[in-house]
Design brief:
23% of the residues lie in helices and 37% in strands. With 275 residues, it is an alpha+beta fold. The protein has six helices and 16 strands. It starts with a helix and ends in a 5-residue tail after the last strand.
């Protein structure tokens, strides 16, 4: 019996060495993965002019980061969504959209999962405003960021404040994004945990942790830029509010289009309900 036991023990040992168990990385549950958009970022030609434009849409400045001079301004859409504005410090820097940042329920868990998927996320670190942050380069060499709001951060401490009563929309619903490498970008977002659906020649992206998030990839054309999507209960009223505020806009049925001073496109979509 002892001999048999020893044989079984050695057999188990060699089986474990020669045939290790294969573990397949599992994505974190929806509440730990992507739960929405945290911010979109623009580099602007004139900070005051951009802040003034967004104020006409009802969006207030929440806080500013300064290191001898202003380096970043945070404009608030709601307690979880912001617009980050960066001043141009060099004439060679391009003006316009820089990146999107997604909110994560558990950024460390999400970063570990992305690492096992070969996406090469940067290590999780604490950003200047006090939140955790990581990023990944997409196939078109753009940056996609991820953040987790932390207790005591500038964002968290601003909860319930700077929520403009006159906001045309209280939510950033998503982005309609022109891409050059359609197949590669579709695969990239699928690897991030989005579910992709081909529709009308575009790719619509959804994610279980943020069912209201609307991302769409479309083939890039010369001069095309991203469109930032905001839901409104009534497009006519949204258009009238912009006109009253002195914003030039165009209305096409349930859609209202306007551009900021640097030409970034904001689209307000009539979805009904309270926004």
């Amino acid at each position: 019996m002892r001999i048999i036991s020893k044989i079984c023990l050695f057999s188990s040992f060699f089986a474990a060495v020669l045939c290790p168990a294969v573990s397949i990385a599992q994505p974190p549950p929806p509440n730990q993965g992507i739960t929405g958009i945290a911010h979109i970022a623009f580099r602007v030609s004139d900070l005051d002019r951009e802040i003034g434009f967004l104020a006409k849409l009802g969006y207030e400045e929440a806080f500013t980061l300064t290191y001898g001079k202003t380096t970043e301004v945070f404009i608030k859409i709601n307690d979880h969504e912001f617009i980050e504005l960066y001043p141009r410090t060099d004439p060679a820097q391009p003006i316009g959209w820089m990146h999107v940042c997604y909110e994560a329920g558990d950024l460390n868990a999400l970063q570990r999962y992305y690492a096992t998927e070969g996406l090469n996320p940067t290590p999780v670190r604490r950003a200047a405003a006090g939140n955790l942050i990581s990023s990944i380069d997409d196939p078109e060499h753009g940056v996609t960021e991820f953040t987790q709001y932390m207790p005591g951060s500038r964002h968290t401490l601003d909860a319930g404040q700077h929520l403009g009563a006159g906001r045309v929309s209280t939510e950033l619903m998503g982005i309609d994004l022109p891409v050059r490498e359609g197949a590669a970008m579709k695969e990239f977002y699928t690897d991030l945990g989005f579910e992709a659906e081909d529709t009308n020649g575009n790719v619509r992206l959804t994610t279980p942790g943020a069912p209201d998030l609307h991302m769409e990839l479309r083939a890039a054309t010369p001069g095309a830029g991203p469109e930032f999507l905001f839901p409104v209960p009534d497009a006519k009223r949204a258009y009238e509010a912009m006109e009253y505020a002195g914003i030039s806009a165009q209305r096409d049925g349930g859609l209202v289009f306007t551009k900021d001073p640097d030409g970034n496109i904001f689209v307000f979509l009539e979805t009904g309900g309270k926004r």
